[in-house]
Amino acid sequence: MSLVEPKIDVLLDNSDNDRFLLCSVASKRANDLNDMMHSQHVRAQDVDAAVELARANHNRALSMAFEEIADNEITCDEDTIDDIKAH
Predict the structure, then answer these.
(1) CA 13, chain centre distance (Å)
(2) pLDDT digits (tens, 9 = 90+) for 34-74
(3) pTM of this prediction?
């Protein structure tokens, strides 16, 4: 049993065994998730939205990004990879 989920082997498999790419994609996605959660928090006005936001905030943005990468919910095409590596 691994203490870290998802396992690094799965994450690397889904990022062409490129640790830099994995870190870059996860970081960019985590920033996007943080921005999204912050803007929802500011605009949350009804109880249902606040409850949903609280559940989403249970996991940290970077953990959520790694889970999305492990589940192949985030993919990169060649242009995206080149853009990430350029920055």
Answers:
(1) 16
(2) 888 777 656 655 555 655 655 665 678 888 889 889 998 88
(3) 0.67
The DSSP secondary structure of 11-77, one letter per residue, reads HHHTTTT-HHHHHHHHHHHHHHHHHHHHHHHHH--SHHHHHHHHHHTTS-HHHHHHHHHHTT-S---
- What is the largest distance, in Å, between two alpha-carbon atoms of the chain? 43
Helix (H, G, I), strand (E, B) or coil at 85: helix
Sequence-distant (≥ 6) Cβ neighbours of residue 70 within 8 angstroms: 6, 7, 10, 11, 14
CA distances from 34 to 29, 38, 47, 81, 82 (A): 9, 6, 21, 21, 24
